[in-house]
Target: GGDEF-domain containing protein
Amino acid sequence: AANTTIPKTVSRHAPRVRQEIREQFELEQDLRKALDSNEFLLHFQPVVCHAEGRARSAEALIRWDHPQRGLVQPSQFIPIAERSGLIDKIGLWVMREACAQVGRWNAHGGDRLKVAINLSASQFLDPRLRDMLAEAIEAEKIAPDQLEIELTESAAMVDHDYTRRTFGRLKDLGLSIAIDDFGTGYASMSYLRKLPFDKLKIDREFVSNVDTQPDAQAICSAMIALGNGLGLHLLAEGAERIEEVDYLASRGCNLFQGYYYSRPVPAGELIETLSDIELLSARRKAEMPAPAK
Ligand code: C2E
Ligand code: MG
Ligand code: MG
Ligand code: MG
Model:
C-alpha cells in the first residue's frame, strides 16, 4: 500500500537517476586510475590564420581512452575531474604532454608550432601555476612563446586582482593568454580594459550560422570591433561552414578554429592536416574572383 503513495513520475525516473549516479561514480573511480595507466592523450585542432591561409598553431584537447568505453570526450569527464579534485593532476599532465609534443615537433624541423592548453579554474587559482608552466617549458627546451593558455571568463573573473597579477606573471614568462568561450561568461568592460591578455575566442554559440542570423551577426560584429579596438587577436570557435568563415573574416576576424578546416586530430596527423589546410586555402584564393579595380 505504501508504494501507491510514490508519485508516478519519481518511480518512473528513479532507476534512470540511480543509473546516472552509478555511472558518474564509476567514471570517477576509473578516472583515479587513468593517469597511472596512461589512458589520456591529446588531440590537436589547427588554428587557421585567414590572411595567411595557413595554420601554425593548434589547441590541445584532452581525450580519455577508457579500457572498456573507448574514447571518452572531455565534456563527460572534465566536470567529474573538477568536482573530485583530480583536475589538478590531469591538468599538470596536459601541460607536460603539450610541451613534450611541441618539443617533438621542434626536433622534427619545419615551422615552429604553437600549442594552446585549457586551464580549469582550480589550476588557475593554484599558486604553483607559474612554476609548473615554467618547469614544463624548461624541461622540453621549447620557447615560452610556443605555449598559450586558455581560460574561460568565469575562471578569470573569480578574483580580479589575482587574475591581473597572475596574467602579468605568466606574460613575463613569455606565454600568451586567451579568453575562451568569450561571450558566455561574465564579461565586464573593465576587465577587458585592465587585464593583460592577447586573444578573445568567440564562442561557437555565436559563430554557428552567423551568416544567416541577424542577432549573432550583431553580437559577433560588436565583439570583433571591440577586440580589434583593444588590440587583441580575434578567433572564431567552431566554424563549420565556409559561409561562417567568410562572414566573420569580412568583419575583421582573422583566426578560425572549427570543423570547416579540421576536427581535432591525433598528434601524428597534425603536420599533414596543416598542409591540407594550406592547399585548401590556396585553392580557394585561386578560385576567388579578382577584386574589382
Ligand atoms: P573548448 O576549450 O572551448 O574547446 C573547443 C571545443 O569545441 C572542443 O571540444 C572542439 O572539439 C569543439 N569544436 C571545435 N570546432 C568545432 C566545430 O566546428 N563544431 C563543433 N560542434 N565543435 C567544435 P572538446 O574537445 O570536446 O572539448 C570540450 C571542452 O572540454 C573544451 O572546450 C574545454 O573546455 C574542455 N577541455 C578539453 N581539453 C581540456 C583540458 O586539457 N583541460 C581542461 N581543463 N579542459 C579541457
Ligand atoms: Mg579552449
Ligand atoms: Mg572554447
Ligand atoms: Mg567552447
